[in-house]
Amino acid sequence: MGREKAVPVTVLTGFLGAGKTTILNAVLSAPRGQKRYGVIVNEFGAIGVDGSLVIGADEDVIELANGCLCCSVRGDLIGALETLLERGGELDAILVETTGLADPGPIAATFLLDDDLSDRVRLDGVVTVLDAVHVERQLAEEDVAASQIAFADLLVLAKSDIVNPAQRLAAEEAARALNSAAPLLRSELGDLDIEALFGLRAYDLNTSRLGFSAVPAVDGARSSHAMSCVSLTLDRSLDPARFMDWMQDLVRARGRSILRSKGVVSLQGEDRRLVFQGVQTMLDGDVRERWAPDEDRRSRLVFIGRDMDKAELQAGLEACIAHPSTAPQRCRPVAAS
């Protein structure tokens, strides 16, 4: 199929009772026009598919009148994706619901590690649904709830209409302490723009889609889970070989604690930007678009994970600064796993 034609997949996660079912029902019941979505769920019964919409069904797949297909996971995720692709014809996007106790990291890794799968589908992003009523308690009691938020490319605050402004702000601040890089949407009275869940391109190396405009100037505060979001900037070009070695050493040594990483980097002797992204120990990157003549060429990096030491990371980055007397070395693609 080719990477450019691969079907985008959105992973929908969130703790038990967060409101994923409401969002899934909205996807399955809303008229989609010419678009056809596939949805992978754990159990058909759990989401209560509207019987009036069903025009065909078997053990694994339900076909709906609005063009959506709903597939249940009866084995591994890859098998469910293959079933959906074989039965679904051309799909515009696929939404995968995780269980409320799932860590999205291994799920995301599935798409990055399976070369055969990556030719047919691509990971578009991780959407985490938060329960505005209970998220603070869940974070205090469950580590996986923190991982779900830290891994998100988009946060959806559900039930925000049934809490007072102070509670809503507290819920948002709790999420921001873990992940200040992901945009946050409020879902009130179950009303949410379904299109906002798709087209995130969070794993696309196209620099215009990396979402750095969403990263605030102030890093997320360290939470009780020792998770935080650290953003780094540097206004001097980096030595290509030194930077590659530093990043690969970093993910080898700290990859399990770094849930996500991404960056746009200015390299000595290179008029194109280096773009990279990582999921724990997996790192991918390459030089991409040329810098515009008047463009801000500062390097910008984001790390989300446990026990992030900003001073240590900043020092490591600054150690990669290129010196004028050093001949620039050719950039090689970033790769680590």
UniProtKB/TrEMBL annotation:
It comes from the Bacteria. Residues 227-321 form the CobW C-terminal domain. GO terms for cellular component: cytoplasm. SUPFAM superfamilies: Hypothetical protein YjiA, C-terminal domain, P-loop containing nucleoside triphosphate hydrolases. Keywords: Chaperone, Hydrolase, Nucleotide-binding. It holds the Pfam family cobW. One of its GO terms (molecular function) is nucleotide binding. It catalyses: GTP + H2O = GDP + phosphate + H(+). Zinc chaperone that directly transfers zinc cofactor to target proteins, thereby activating them. Zinc is transferred from the CXCC motif in the GTPase domain to the zinc binding site in target proteins in a process requiring GTP hydrolysis. Belongs to the SIMIBI class G3E GTPase family. ZNG1 subfamily. This is GTP-binding protein. It comes from Hansschlegelia quercus.
